[in-house]
phosphoenolpyruvate--glycerone phosphotransferase
Amino acid sequence: MKMLINVPETVVADALRGIAAAHPELTVDVENRVVVRRDAPVAGKVGLVSGGGSGHEPLHAGFVGPGMLSAACPGEVFTSPVPDQMLRAAAAVDSGAGVLFVVKNYTGDVLNFEMAAELADDEGIQIAQVVVDDDVAVSDSTFTAGRRGTGATLFVEKIAGALADEGAPLERVAAVARRVNGASRSFGVALSAVTTPAKGSPTFDLPTGELELGIGIHGEPGRERRPMMTSGEIADFAVNAVLEDLRPTGPVLALVNGMGATPLLELYGFNAEVHRVLSERGVPVARTLVGNYVTSLDMAGCSVTLCQVDEELLRLWDAPVRTAALRWGG
Amino acid sequence: MKMLINVPETVVADALRGIAAAHPELTVDVENRVVVRRDAPVAGKVGLVSGGGSGHEPLHAGFVGPGMLSAACPGEVFTSPVPDQMLRAAAAVDSGAGVLFVVKNYTGDVLNFEMAAELADDEGIQIAQVVVDDDVAVSDSTFTAGRRGTGATLFVEKIAGALADEGAPLERVAAVARRVNGASRSFGVALSAVTTPAKGSPTFDLPTGELELGIGIHGEPGRERRPMMTSGEIADFAVNAVLEDLRPTGPVLALVNGMGATPLLELYGFNAEVHRVLSERGVPVARTLVGNYVTSLDMAGCSVTLCQVDEELLRLWDAPVRTAALRWGG
């Protein structure tokens, strides 16, 4: 498998140097692997810190900026960052108003953020945490006890980030983050396996002519393999899997997400099918986002995340955001 | 090759339905294949119309909106749109101030836009045209007499779009578009072949362990094949190929573009190497854009486009833009 890299050992550091070169509005500590809003800490504002294994870009560094994350800590590819990174990030963004850790539900991430929270507490930084666990495909999986955290992370970071920018206190920012996670569900599909730089060959074997329903963002196994399906059939399966669990009673935000190697032309076609299913099921869609946001390196495939919103959540979703990957308003 | 599609015949129409569902700020004529700013025609404003074969998304429909294109006409995958689409687009966006056609230099596109210009003239719509031909890899290629039009299209559409939004007359908008094209050069590299929905298998054969230097965005042959190179070696080759031809005497805009299937993590790492080479060559970089903007379906690889800018071009680049794929300011 050919990759656009120097050597596997420097992939994350190289990317951080590239982020620094492209984004003068971010402070990038390449050695310690922390990406911070240049204007942090913002007086009186709750800080938002997230992080996780690399390989899911633009998540999380692409979501650092006004209206969303204050800082991100990238780990090695598909490997949790260490508590020291999270502590550095928290210290860099804490204005005294406290810091919310947004944690995807993978065992390593949960343990390391927990340890970082204790270390931060020792340093007098007030920490709250939200664990994102939106993937309905399987309960318990490789690296995870309970449900995996995937696409809802984007909704949590955007909406909690908007509330933090309004000056809300830590407990309210944490509460809205938990509310968004509770109102969100995801389901993902792989059309091809993923190859990590360290391994250099696909991490699992997906036979020609088959797809995997319910895949995780590290290539963790899903619910089942089937002969290849059409875009419409995949939308039926994925959206119905989400709706069975979410049972929305009002409008939703829809994230139609690419896993990395699926062309945008195909993602938009898939979005048409997602909207068809939602319309058939009587679910109104308030906003739709289509693109590669929570990826799995070079995996082909897609995921659907729905988040039921009320007026407050929709207002916070629409609030201005200025990051590398998500940007609108103001 | 597995694709997220229904059937090859409906790929473009399906994508247009998906664009319509995701972007209420656009008017999408699925049947006639025209995507238009919802507020077009804008009184007194020159219209900007572009188009070309599908498979390069977000180009061009993702660049329709305030500050950039007024309309886009997508053809079949890797196939020019027809003059009727261009004429419809021109008629939809013309406020009486005329319309600029932004044409990538492929024989079919050039001929069809030329014919559309004649038809529009018959209907009393004043048309100017700019042909984008920035790819230094080869002169003459499959589908092209002269140089191919690639990444510079984004710079032309953004900068001319900003000037049009300021109310400049057609001849000035056309002149700045030509100036941007003249100041821009690109070079692309393929790490894997591209598969079109209609063919269903790779359109060319790229052996394991080799890459193609100077590839076109339809998989047209480049300059040469070599054993796989590192990200740093590729940056040296690509940037130097551009600089040999451009010989900039001032700051540049840099587009570090993914061909579709190369992870953003790798693109950012490559961007670090592009900046290293530019720094070694003494070329200051005013702005950098990293991501999948001018793609080739599922091809792995990247391209570098540089555009030398003066104060006016940089001001227009920085001006607010509000499209699906490019969005900042205001």
